[in-house]
Amino acid sequence: xxxKQYLPKEKIISILNEYNIGVIKKIExxxxxxxxxxxVLTDTDEYFLxxxxxxxxxxxxxEIEAELELISFLSEKGIPVIxxxxxxxxxxxxxxxxxxxxxxxxxxGEEILSPDTKHLKKFGxxxxxxxxxxxxYRTKNHRxxxxxLEETKKNFKQNKEIILKSSFSKKEEFIEKFEKEIFPLNxxxxxxxxxxxxxxxxxxxxWRKDSIIGIIDFDRCYFGKIILDLGQALRxxxxxxxxxxxxxxxxxxxxxxYQKEKKLNGLEKEYLIDAVKFAVLERGLSFCLRFIxxxxxxxxxxxxxxxVSENGFLNIIEKNRDKIEQIIKAA
Length: 331
Description:
Helix content is 47%, strand content 15%. The protein is built from eleven helices and eleven strands. The longest helix has 30 residues, at 266-295. It is globular and about 60 Å long.
């Protein structure tokens, strides 16, 4: 599901020459889920170059500026993030052939894909701190791309025919089950809002010696309901055993520590399970369209189908509903 994308070397060099970063020693492409990314080694430091590609992952200059606004705001609030480097002309946003991006220091650390309780608690605490900081915060620049419930319903309606005409092997079953689950969902307008990350899975939290040193990849950030960000994070951290089981232990550890930084109100508690279910559905649709329009990778298609299949992710959540509700009530 991760792949490397490339720019001509001379164009990369032209971008890097706009910075005071020393002598370039090595430029290495980095596999990602969509952006054009490189690790750049110079005689002074390591850097991460990210450019939004054409197609569904394209972002405007304003959207990149909004992303960098959020990162700067979080840095001021003590959240471990890395600000973009300034170019010689004092700009932060890179423009190349109507593609936009930025350069930052590279966070040399590790992802922890099998976290223990200690890691889960630390993640829950930093997530609560993040959500407390961004409640009510909105960037001055606008993020056109959003992944909230209404946009997901709209996205599904617009792409339904594309799915039906595609080579996705179980397209009729996917559409039937997706429609059945997504359209009854609703979230009250008075749930707390903020500029959320939207993709705080394990790959986007960087560790060193059991400490979180970086939250990365704000490519999907937007102003929306904070509970949806929590639901998306719990989806990523509580499904275990290669997505075949749900861990109430993980859920409890994260939620208890989260509450020490930001207390969920009664309405947020009421809609938290729906937020996790929505996270599953949104990613299911995203992977379905990614399979059809971009990758043709069977793993993407399988993930999409497992999101809604009879014994898939939603079913696993429902089997654990009673215990999840007990944990939420006690938190």
